[in-house]
């Protein structure tokens, strides 16, 4: 249990059986009145936001949330399977939890898991990964502008926008937070 | 960051001088009363910091200054630290600077006009004019608005202040709905609190449903609180006893009886009005600072 005075930006709490994280926090108090803890928060599963105000006597549930690191192992045809680096214990993750991030999973890369009641609710991949471009229009030599782009595909079929000078066979760096091209690592 | 702080501390210093000059010109004299006191005023939602040896850090200099009034001090002001436990936020620190003043013989309306004038002079001294640019809009401190608490609740929250006060929803609506609307164009005095929120104010002789109490706002920020002071010793002791009972019922720290203040009441307080202004907040408004730590070395 948390009391209202424990509330602060970043804290994770539980309301009606759902995990929330406080994204904005303000201590309010009319001079002669009661203190109010004004929170804006985000549902950690649905991403929905809401505002809620607490009083000093309010008690707030603490969610059963842990963070741990897991290695990505393999795709078993239905689930993405990760393993604990210490215990080798495996955990299967549904594709819906990963969304587009599934395209950026690389075998043996270390990912950060947020686990709520034994279910992963958020998985953070290494910020940058390297992938080969398997399909794109031929590059325009000498055109180093990065603001003009064309579509390109990586090995698993995911399409990104790349600058015109990128060629098939080039290795590029991708930002897994946005799924966007970051830079060229090496030429074909 | 440090540069901004130093710049703001210079502004703060100019402001201190201007405010002092303003009070001297109005025939007030400056007093200092103990910071470490035997008994804070028992209030429902203000927590004092115990100072050891049975003493407390003052939550405001109110009781001591009223003792001085009972001795015939007349018009007095004080600028100094006050302490409120557990208050920490953009506009709150446990230690903050309070500007508190009392004028015997003045009613709370006269004190409001005087306070508006003081704020205007302070702004002119440090910004060169009456206009402040705050949160993308212009606030002209030459505009002074008076609105009753009930009118403000009806207008901005769509409810009667008396009803929500009785239902214990007053503070939530005040913070969420009412305060953001106050002082949008200038200085707003929020006047005449429901009698159950009179604090140390006397009830209005014309309408005992309300107390002679106002708070002053600029740009949605509460700057100060004032009372037509309660001088009736019997009534004052009754209110403190109720506050003590509330504190006891809610497991809050109980305070010793403020004996010296009770003696002052027995001696007799003159008819007077008094106000406490958050000096750090006034400085925040006049410098555009978003956090107390930018105007006060914390």
Can you offer a commentary on this structure?
The complex is a heterodimer of chains A (188) and B (298). Chain A is 2% helix and 53% strand. Chain A is mainly beta and 188 residues long. In chain A, strands 9-8-7-10-11 form a five-stranded antiparallel sheet. Chain A has a five-stranded antiparallel sheet with strand order 14-13-12-15-16, with no helix packed on it. A four-stranded antiparallel sheet of chain A has the order 2-3-4-5, with no helix packed on it. Chain A is elongated, with a radius of gyration of 22 Å. Chain B is of the alpha+beta class and 298 residues long. Chain B is built from nine helices and 13 strands. Chain B has helices at 2-25, 62-70, 108-127, 149-157, 161-166, 170-178, 233-249, 259-267, 279-287; strands at 29-30, 36-37, 49-52, 55-57, 75-83, 95-104, 131-134, 137-140, 144-148, 187-194, 210-218, 221-228, 272-278. In chain B, the strands form three sheets. In chain B, strands 1-5-6-13-12-11-10-9 form an eight-stranded mixed sheet, sandwiched between helices. In chain B, a hairpin with a 2-residue loop joins β3 (49-52) and β4 (55-57). In chain B, α1 (2-25) packs across α3. The model of chain B has no long low-confidence stretch (mean pLDDT 96). The chains are: A mainly beta (188), B alpha+beta (298). Chain A binds chain B through residues 5, 26-36, 38, 53, 56-57, and chain B through 43-46, 86-90, 92, 170-172, 174-176, 179, 197, 199, 215, 222, 225, 250.
């Amino acid at each position: 249990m948390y009391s209202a005075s424990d509330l602060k930006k970043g804290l994770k709490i539980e309301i009606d059986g759902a995990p929330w994280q406080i994204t904005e926090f303000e201590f309010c108090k009319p001079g002669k009145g009661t203190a109010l803890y004004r929170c804006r928060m985000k549902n950690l599963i649905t991403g929905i936001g809401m505002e809620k105000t607490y009083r000093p006597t309010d008690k707030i549930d603490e969610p059963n949330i842990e963070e741990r690191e897991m290695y990505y192992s393999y795709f078993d045809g239905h689930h993405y399977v990760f393993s604990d680096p210490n215990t080798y214990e495996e955990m299967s993750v549904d594709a819906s939890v990963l969304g587009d991030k599934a395209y950026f999973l690389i075998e043996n890369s270390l990912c950060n898991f947020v686990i709520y009641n034994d279910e992963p609710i958020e998985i953070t991949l290494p910020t940058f990964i390297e992938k080969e471009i398997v399909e794109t229009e031929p590059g325009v030599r000498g055109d180093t502008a990065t603001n003009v782009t064309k579509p390109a595909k990586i090995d698993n079929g995911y399409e990104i926008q790349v600058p015109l000078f990128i060629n098939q066979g080039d290795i590029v760096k991708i930002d897994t937070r946005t799924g966007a091209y970051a830079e060229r690592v090496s030429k074909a | 960051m440090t540069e901004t702080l130093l710049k703001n501390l210079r502004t703060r210093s100019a402001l201190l001088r201007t405010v002092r000059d303003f009070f001297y010109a109005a025939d007030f004299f400056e007093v200092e009363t103990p910071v470490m006191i035997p008994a804070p005023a028992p209030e429902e939602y203000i927590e004092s910091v115990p100072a050891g040896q049975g003493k407390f850090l003052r939550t405001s200099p109110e009781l001591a200054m009223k003792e001085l009034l009972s001795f015939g001090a007349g018009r007095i002001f004080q600028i100094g630290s006050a302490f409120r436990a557990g208050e920490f936020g953009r506009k709150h620190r446990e230690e903050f600077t309070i500007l508190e003043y009392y004028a015997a013989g003045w009613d709370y309306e006269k004190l409001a006009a005087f306070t508006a004038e003081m704020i205007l002079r302070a702004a002119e001294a440090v910004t060169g004019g009456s206009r402040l640019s705050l949160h993308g809009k212009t606030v002209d401190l030459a505009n002074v608005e008076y609105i009753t608490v009930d009118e403000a609740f009806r207008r901005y929250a769509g409810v009667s202040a008396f009803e929500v006060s009785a239902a214990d929803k007053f503070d939530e609506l005040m913070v969420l709905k009412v305060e953001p609307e106050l002082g949008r164009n200038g200085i707003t005095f929020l006047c005449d609190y429901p009698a159950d929120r009179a604090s140390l104010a006397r009830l209005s002789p014309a309408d005992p449903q309300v107390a002679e109490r106002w708070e002053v706002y600029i740009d949605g920020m509460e700057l100060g609180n004032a009372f037509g002071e309660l001088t009736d010793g019997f009534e004052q002791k009754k209110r403190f006893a109720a506050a003590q009972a509330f504190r006891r019922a809610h497991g809050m720290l109980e305070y010793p009886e403020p004996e010296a203040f009770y003696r002052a009441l027995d001696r007799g307080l003159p008819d007077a009005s008094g106000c406490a202004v958050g000096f750090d907040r006034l400085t925040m408004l006049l410098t555009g600072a978003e956090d107390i730590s930018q105007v006060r070395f914390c």
